[in-house]
Amino acid sequence: MTDFLTNIAPEIFYALCGLVCLDAGWRAFRKNDKAKYGTALFWVLVGVIFILGKWIPSTITGGILVVMGILTVSGQVRIGTFRDVSVEEKEKESRRIKSWIFLPAVTVGLMALVMSFVRIDGAALDGAVMVGIACLVSFVLAVIICRPKVNETRENTTKQLMQVGASCLLPQLLGALGTLFTEAGVGDVISTMISSVVPSGNILIGVIIYCLGMVIFTMIMGNAFAAFSVITLGIGIPFVIAQGGNPVVVGALGMTCGFCGTLLTPMAANFNIVPTAVLETRNKWTVIRAQAPMAFAMIVVHIVLMLLLAF
User: Fold this and answer.
1) Where in the chain are the domains?
2) What is the model's pTM?
3) Residues whose CB falls within 8 Å of the CB of residue 78, separated by 6 or more in sequence, listed in order
4) How large is the average pLDDT for residues 148-154?
């Protein structure tokens, strides 16, 4: 059972994601007016990586990612044309479904939280399994509440996936980039640079530089997890923890301070670009502009909390 949950179940959920991508590729090939071949190839390659990624050699996967990058940069990945839903139809469905529409979305988070406490043979469930089960339960609830036709479900799923586009791969790629930076010794380089500027033994300056470093590097990387290892090794340990800071408090607040940077960058595509695409806002900076005041306020709060709680 443990082997199934650890090795097989995650691949099942990855394969389901891959099938959705393959369906998007097939739809692009059949119905796209512009860049049909490039768009179809892009989504087929994404689907292949999700389904067969465990068995494909890493060098080949890297080559596939390069091809996908070329397709994206050259403008060969397009959304395609979908049927417009009239305002009257939207209002009619809104009156019918009412606030129940939020239940499936809330269910994903709650189910994932509940699954995190599940232990089978003493082992926790894989993250992909937890989120996968939560999404399946949410999907069933959405079908019960909305009662869509099969073709409507396929069409709208493909539409949302195409609206997100290449941004759907950014979290995984940026996470890998953080590991690459750590292995390349970027943290040591940053530490050397900061040591020539920050006065030795100054706790206040050390905390400010660490928190701002987490914010700025997260904005660059688009991912606080990717920034955490680099900035904590380069700044957090030598300039904060080495001055007597509690490592647990410093690490926890450093990570959440990085999330303030997530609120301010288009590189965090899954938070800031995807919503604008799905909601079809007129300005792609709408989400970031709404979040910016809270982000700046929370940066100050994190600096104060780290000074009060870590020392």
Assistant:
1) 1-82, 84-147, 171-309
2) 0.75
3) 28, 32, 34, 35, 38, 39, 162
4) 85
